[in-house]
Specification:
By secondary structure, this protein is of the alpha+beta class. The protein folds into four domains: about 400 residues, no CATH class; about 80 residues, Immunoglobulin-like (Sandwich); about 140 residues, Immunoglobulin-like, CATH 2.60.40; about 80 residues, Immunoglobulin-like, CATH 2.60.40.
Length: about 775
């Protein structure tokens, strides 16, 4: 039976599932692999000579993967997989007697996973006599609503030899992000010492600096382009904004409310090996759907009283918890802000009242101790690194005095000490209301406008208002309700909502939400007005051009020549893309959701049709058929699906696009490709009053051009990322253009006359 703490943990998860869907700040269920009511057995079968090589002292820092057979048995299911990748993992644990291991399920069979996991980390926890601290911390983090690894204890056997009790820790990757944030295409940074988040200047490359052969901010995405602009912007906001501007600046780039709970987590658990004290061991995930960074804790064994720095983490001041000898803006800038400091104090008080206390945690610890005790007693590697015995195992759960340098506290003694110390230190100030998860419906005019948000506080809420302006009209504030009427389906659930009468013209509905508690504390969110784009029933978004056989024309950000689709806003108002879908299947119109972007008037966006959604949010989950096929663009609003485009296209030729001519409005025809460019006049050559030719093609240094008519013409050369690399007015019908400054590649040469007629041709620079 689960302890009271664990029962509350599952109740909290269900509550979080309801009101934090915008950020998916609930963690997924344990599932088969991480079921912690049992201790599953994992068997690894490996060639003995290979195992000997892996464990040899001279090879322990190798990351080479070897093929093994894998078996998982939890008493209810038994699963076997062949050709699984296997290696050592960790840092200090590689030289320990009880080593840690990594399994990679798709290393030798691409695309394979094990119950949704591509990798599995088996951690020996060799310096923790309980083998449980990282597990306990993960459960506490989940209870707080922090994105957290799932964990459970397992028994590891290699070639039928019992290697001991291990902690199975979920790997942090794009699958992890997708399960927490409903998004897997953002940039994921693994941050290791010395990741102090100090500003190094505006150049994003400054944050690619390496230490000891690895980067402090290591971008884990599978991309050849290492673009650190997003983390540079985050670090700028954290360090360089004034105290007055800081809240607005940081909330534009960081999920600050979730991180305030993470500060609570670090201080509760004594996680000194994270960013606040040791500038180490955390992940930052840039969720490109919300455009916010999310914080993810990592490597949680040096916690709950384990200490290597001669510090008393059980009694340390919670308002001066960071390293006082070095800058730690991730903590100090936040704690210097009165609003955030008061909210931190409220969250900390909630934590010790709700679960971080003897009544809730001690029975949970007793259950964990009893679950793994007999297996630890048989663990042949348990005692090798520090001489632990079973008295130490039990004592590390219960006793105040322990004989180990690194273990200042038993688990129960630490919890009591930390809780009592916090109660004596807490500042009692009223926190302002917390407004989060603001949602609206990008809507058509003549449709009801719906807006809702979560509002919570340590006091009673007295008023929540929606303040808005439509186009250039007057500003107005209206009351939002949590009464269970209308779209607020459940009363008193902290979800406040409002429905507004339709407007009958398209435009921009700008708004923010204000909340006041019964002590007069006020919060406004977001700092910068949020825009809801009210659209005409005839949405001016079109498929403007696409290419189904891209052999030489344009590379995506991974250097791959994939099929592509160009969308264009031909209207007068911005268009929100987040409720629109592309599909290559007429029976599945909602096959792929467009990224949560806004396309402004006369703007273009390229979508890569490569069936590789892991690469980024601009990569669709289908490819285009060069032999001919189907393509659609639809809008979904209030469960209504409206078809914007519905194309049956014929067989396509290599490096020739199918494009609307005139641009944005005309019929489709085969054309010279112009990604992110106006299509007019490119292939409709029968009415063009001038022409040109050039040689040689391919060319190396110079391009020689002959024109039939130079009157009023200009020349422009651009690459296939749409960037202009050369532009000039034409002074002669015979031109010599120096191309020695250009890198090899495919380019478009475009000539345009003063009356707007344009002709473009492709050439290759070698």
């Amino acid at each position: 039976m689960k302890s009271t703490f664990m029962k509350r943990y599952f109740l909290v998860l269900s509550f979080y599932f309801y009101w934090t869907q915008a950020f998916s700040q609930f963690n997924p269920a344990a599932g088969v692999v991480f079921d912690d009511s049992v201790v599953p057995r994992i068997d690894i079968t490996i060639d003995p000579d290979t195992l000997e090589w892996i464990l040899a002292d001279e090879n322990i820092y190798s990351n080479q993967l070897f093929q093994v057979d894998f078996q998982f048995d939890n008493g209810n299911i038994t699963e076997n997989l062949e050709h699984v990748g296997f290696r050592l993992r960790g840092n200090t644990s590689r030289s320990a007697d009880k080593k840690s291991f990594k399994l990679d399920f798709n290393a030798f069979e691409s695309g394979r996973n094990f119950y949704g996991l591509e990798k599995m980390n088996l951690n020996g926890q060799h310096n923790d006599p309980t083998i449980s601290r990282a597990k306990i911390c993960a459960d506490i983090g989940i209870h707080l609503g922090i994105p957290m690894m799932r964990t459970n204890h397992v028994r590891l056997y290699i070639n039928d030899e019992f290697r001991g009790v291990y902690l199975n820790v979920e790997h942090i990757d794009e699958e992890f992000a997708d399960k927490r944030f409903d998004n897997e295409t953002g940039q994921l940074y693994k941050c290791l010492w010395p990741a102090d988040l100090i500003y190094k200047g505006s150049d994003p490359a400054a944050y690619q600096e390496s230490f000891g052969g690895r980067r402090a901010y290591d971008l884990k995405n599978k991309t050849i382009y290492q673009d650190y602009t997003d983390i540079a912007d985050f670090i700028f906001a954290l360090n360089q904004t004034s105290d007055i501007d800081f809240p607005c600046a940081i909330e534009e780039v960081f999920h600050i409310d979730a991180y305030l709970k993470a500060i609570v987590f670090d201080i509760l658990t004594g996680n000194w090996d994270g960013p606040i004290y040791n500038k180490n061991n955390f992940y930052l995930y840039h969720n490109d759907w919300t455009d916010l960074f999310e914080y993810i804790p990592y490597d949680l064994d040096n916690t709950l009283g384990i200490d290597w720095l001669n510090k008393d983490w059980g009694n340390r001041n919670i308002y001066q918890w960071s390293n006082q000898n070095e800058a730690r803006p991730i903590y100090t800038r936040i704690m210097e802000n009165e609003q955030y400091r008061d909210r931190f104090s409220w969250y900390m008080q909630q934590a010790i009242d709700d679960f971080f206390n003897e009544e809730e945690l001690f029975s949970y610890l007793d259950e964990m101790h009893d679950l793994i005790y007999n297996f630890v007693a048989e663990d042949p590697y348990y005692s090798l690194d520090y001489g632990f015995d079973m008295d130490d195992f039990t004592g590390s759960f219960n006793d105040a005095n322990l004989p180990f340098f690194q273990t200042d506290y038993s688990l129960k003694d630490y919890i009591t000490t930390r809780k009592n110390s916090i109660e004596n230190q807490l500042e009692w100030n009223n926190a302002s209301p917390v407004i989060s998860n603001i949602e609206d419906n990008n809507t058509f005019y003549s449709h009801t406008i719906k807006i809702q948000a979560s509002v919570v506080d340590n006091q009673a809420i007295s008023q929540v208002n929606l303040c808005y302006q439509f186009n250039d009209g007057p500003s107005e504030c209206l009351s939002m309700k949590d009464d269970g009427i209308g779209i607020d389906s459940t009363a008193m659930d902290h979800i406040y909502s409002i429905e507004l009468d339709p407007v009958y013209t398209e435009g921009i509905f700008s708004y923010h939400i204000e909340a006041i508690d019964n002590q007069g504390a006020l919060s406004i969110s977001p700092c910068i007005e949020k825009n809801l784009y009210v659209q005409n029933e005839t949405i001016q978004l079109v498929i403007n051009e696409f290419m189904a056989k891209n052999d030489h024309i344009i590379n995506d950000e991974f250097g791959e020549k994939d099929d592509w689709i160009e969308l264009y806003n031909r209207g007068a108002y911005p268009i929100a893309l987040g409720d629109k879908f592309l599909s290559d299947d007429p029976t599945e119109p909602l096959k792929w959701p467009l990224p949560n972007e806004v396309l402004h008037p006369d703007e273009y966006i390229i979508i890569w049709a490569d069936d590789d959604t892991e690469q980024s949010r601009f990569h669709a989950n289908f490819k285009l058929a060069a032999s001919g096929g189907f393509l659609s663009l639809v809008n979904r609003n209030d469960q209504e699906i409206k078809v914007l485009e519905w194309l049956d296209y014929q067989e396509q030729s290599a490096d020739i696009s199918w494009a609307r001519i005139p641009n944005g409005t005309g019929d489709f025809q085969f054309d010279g490709p112009t990604p992110r460019k106006n299509n007019d006049g490119i292939s409709n050559t029968q009415n063009i009053p001038f022409d040109f030719s050039f040689y040689p093609n391919p060319t190396q240094d110079f391009l020689f051009m002959d024109l039939t008519n130079k009157q009023g013409a200009t020349i422009q050369i651009y690459d296939f990322y749409g960037q202009t690399v050369f532009q000039s007015s034409i002074q002669s019908t015979n031109l010599k253009i120096d191309l020695r400054f250009l890198p090899p590649g495919v380019y478009i040469c475009s000539l345009e006359q003063i009356h707007g007629v344009r002709l473009s041709k492709k050439f290759v620079k070698i």
